[in-house]
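User: Hi! I have a protein structure encoded as tokens and I'd like to know what sequence might fold into it. I'm fairly new to this, so please keep things simple.
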């Protein structure tokens, strides 16, 4: 499952994602295959060198390769039954090159020396063809890191936890909600492991092991007299963590009156009990009188709003119109940034781009350009001060280096 898909799921509701036996995200496999360690790092480096050398031999001035394996597991239940268990794997290679001043890209699931060499040669051919219709690109310099690695700092690999244990937990969650007054209850756990290897002619060989998890539930309460109903979802967020996220600790609970919120650990059973009580309160609650109110919002209430209204509009490729026929444009045009006084919001409003926060959903060590990730201001004191850039866009803002925002949705997708 790709990171953008993971974000979109939170808006769609997990009920529509009780996946069938085949999936858009890869191939359905046995659970044991998710525990297979896959290709070792020496093999990846050897394959990478084959691809990079093949690209240079055909005239590439720059080349990079991504050897990526995506593992996903979904366990979903409703009331007292299991709705779905899906184990999904996707494995392949994407090669990107610059030849005659233009990008070329090709991908394959033939992860052999012959397969990656042919893919590299095809990418060079694409670049040379594109160069006839494109101006030469400018790539921000990037010093090679050598052989480095980064891993999500997990305590317990979610894929190593027996499926039965996950099912038992979810059925217990449903039971807690139902016995405390809920009429319907569904729950799920989504788990993601991205094994990403990047190598480039700059001299970087980067191995990353990225983990994410998202437990969720929805409880429904019905007023049988009026047929009105209310729902309450889990008070949790997808996290860059392992199964330890579902191993609660009292020190990670934020209590205020009868309300409990959760920090870095999540007590899903306790939240289910709370949800049953609160959804009943919602059903009896009166509609609020129109007016101005001060609100205190949980971050999970805002993350999708921020993602859409701040995240996407500050992607420089979108600002420049490169995504106009794909995902749209942006209201935060370059003239607003150049003015250094465009009022995005109240002077108390600050947004920072940060791919280094512990347990963050987007937290990684290096982006898909092979650039080490960091943090920087996007909105400062209410003013637009920066964007999100990649290596081939940094010069537009007068930057000497990329900010590490390149991302490819899969091994078969072009990074941008």
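Assistant: Happy to help. Inverse folding works backwards from shape to sequence: for each of the 416 positions I chose a residue that suits the local structure. Here it is:
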């Amino acid at each position: 499952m790709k990171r953008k898909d993971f974000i979109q799921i939170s808006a769609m509701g997990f009920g529509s994602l009780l996946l069938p036996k085949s999936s858009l995200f890869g191939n359905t496999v046995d659970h044991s295959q998710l525990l297979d360690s896959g290709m070792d790092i020496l093999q990846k480096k050897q394959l990478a060198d084959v691809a990079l050398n093949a690209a240079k031999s055909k005239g590439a001035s720059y080349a990079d390769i991504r050897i990526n394996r995506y593992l996903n597991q979904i366990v979903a239940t409703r009331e007292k039954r299991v709705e779905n268990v899906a184990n999904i794997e996707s494995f392949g290679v994407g090669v990107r090159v610059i030849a005659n001043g233009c990008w070329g890209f090709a991908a394959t699931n033939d992860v052999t020396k012959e397969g990656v060499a042919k893919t590299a040669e095809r990418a060079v051919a694409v670049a040379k063809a594109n160069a006839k219709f494109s101006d030469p690109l400018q790539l921000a310099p990037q010093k090679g890191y050598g052989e480095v690695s980064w891993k999500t700092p997990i305590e317990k690999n979610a894929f190593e936890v027996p499926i039965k244990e996950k099912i038992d937990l979810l059925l217990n969650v449903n039971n807690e909600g139902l016995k405390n007054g809920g009429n319907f209850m569904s729950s799920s756990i989504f788990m993601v492991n991205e094994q990403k290897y990047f190598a480039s002619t700059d001299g970087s060989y980067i191995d990353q092991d990225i983990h994410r998890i998202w437990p969720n539930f929805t409880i429904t309460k019905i007023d049988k007299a009026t047929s009105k109903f209310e729902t309450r979802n889990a008070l949790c967020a997808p996290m860059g963590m392992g199964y330890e996220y579902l191993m609660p600790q009292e020190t990670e609970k934020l209590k205020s009156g009868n309300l409990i919120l959760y920090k870095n650990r999540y007590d899903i059973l306790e939240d289910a009990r709370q949800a049953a009580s609160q959804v009943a309160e919602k059903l009896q609650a009166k509609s609020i009188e129109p007016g101005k109110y001060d609100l205190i919002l949980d971050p999970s209430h805002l993350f999708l709003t921020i993602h859409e209204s701040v995240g996407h509009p500050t992607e420089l490729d979108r600002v420049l119109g490169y995504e106009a026929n794909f995902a749209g444009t942006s209201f935060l045009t370059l003239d607003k940034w150049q003015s250094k006084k465009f009022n995005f919001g109240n002077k108390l409003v600050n947004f920072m781009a940060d791919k280094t926060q512990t347990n963050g959903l987007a937290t990684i060590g290096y982006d898909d350009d092979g650039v080490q990730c960091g943090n920087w201001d996007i909105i400062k004191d209410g003013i637009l001060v920066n964007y999100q850039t990649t290596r081939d866009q940094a010069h537009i803002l007068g930057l000497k280096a990329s900010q590490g925002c390149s991302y490819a949705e899969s091994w078969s997708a072009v990074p941008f």
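A useful reference point when you look it over: The CA atoms of residues 170 and 187 lie 6 Å apart. Feel free to ask if any position seems puzzling.
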